[in-house]
Amino acid sequence: MLTHPQFDPIAFSLGPLSVRWYGLMYLIAFTLFIVLGRLHARRRPELGWNAQMLDDLLMYGVLGVIIGGRLGEVMFFQPGYYLQHPAEILAIWKGGMSFHGGFLGVLAAMWLYARRHGKSFWQVTDFIAPLVPTGLAAGRIGNFINGELWGRPVDGELPWAMVFPWVDALPRHPSQLYQALGEGVLLFAVLWWYSASPRPLRAVSAVFLIGYGSLRFAAEFFRTPDPGIFGTLSLGLSTAQWLCLPMILAGAALLALNRRHA
Question: Is residue 256 classed exposed, middle or buried when 0-12, 13-18 and 19+ CB atoms within 10 A define those classes?
């Protein structure tokens, strides 16, 4: 059995400025987006992306992630807390970003980018889909360092079960690391391979929706559910799991639409 290292959330300080690990994880995520985006554009030149377009795309994406992710956390998962502490809504450096809110924010940002740059929405989402999972992995590692979003108590013996001392003395699943490996590393490997060859429009986006939705749905069985707007819903599923179902269905519908057109 392991014990969480209880990291200092501040990575380093420069005079009065404190740089937090959570913020560094976002910086790593955005850097990986640019690096992998340039590699992807180079291996698929027929897609018509260049470095300047990637820089603009990142700016839109950052705004979508931050605004959507924070609003999603506030509205979907902890509305009661933020109604009582409205000043905390802006304290994103403390953690608390919803993937589903960030996902909707990014979709809105990509739609706006596509309109302003003469590309279709699906051309944009197909290009960025393989670039997203590494950022998700970085975010989950940030959650682990912050000691938030811990897992459910373990039934039986598990060598890597971890105690989070500020929660209780029970050994729990380190679910943040499960998600970093699943939604991050595994999903990246699948999408990077799948997007290396020409695919029908919308196909890469569809695989992302199905892949993320399925992996997050499974990970929720090992993670202590967030309170959510309705807590634990019918069938014993969490708010996040119910939010994943439309993603999986939408991805399947896109693949079916492509097959019908083919």
Answer: exposed
What is the per-residue pLDDT across 100-120, written as a single tens digit (0 to 9) for each? 788 889 999 999 999 998 899
Q: Is 140 annotated to bind ligand?
A: yes
Between the alpha carbon of residue 238 and those of residues 66, 87, 126, 220, 243, the distances in Å are 23, 27, 29, 7, 9
Q: Mapping DSSP to helix (H, G, I), strand (E, B) and coil, where does residue 68 land?
A: helix
| Distance of alpha carbon 107 from alpha carbon 97, whole angstroms | 16
- At 58-82, the pLDDT tens digits run 999 999 988 888 887 777 667 767 7
Name the residue with tokens 């309705």. 230
The HSE-up count of residue 62 (CA atoms within 13 Å, CB side) is 16
Q: pTM for this structure?
A: 0.88
